[in-house]
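Now for one record.
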Amino acid sequence: MAVSAGAMELDMVINYPLLKEQQYPQVYTDIVAVRNAALFPIVLKVILETSKLSEYDIIAGCKVAKVASADFVKTSTGFGGQGATEENVQLMKWMIGPNMKVKASGGVKTVNDCVAMMEAGAERIGTSNGVWIMKEAHTLLDDITHTTGDKGEGTVDLR
């Protein structure tokens, strides 16, 4: 339905109870069904809900999503548990390699959180604090340029 309405990206939550039970063929079948309904160039993001999973389950979820041709793995919906951690983002990126992407979602509230997630391997950030983060970034840049007299030359490390 979303695809026929023109959606260019779909998010799906992995069946994490089945993942935890190591029912990988069923998890794979679920993801492939969505992938087949949303063919390239539609972007498919598979949400792992990492706060509900062990490290082993995160690794397995990433592997299944990769084999099922997902474009992204995503840490969480942002509604159930801790959300993104640097450690989980690093693990996810390490497992999927360079041809897939990670979206860090949930618990990303500041510029420093964004920078930390991107340094850990996230390609995208999911946050309900986007306006605040952009205001914070603008303020930080203003403070740096006023303090240093920099007119935009060079680079600025926000950490």
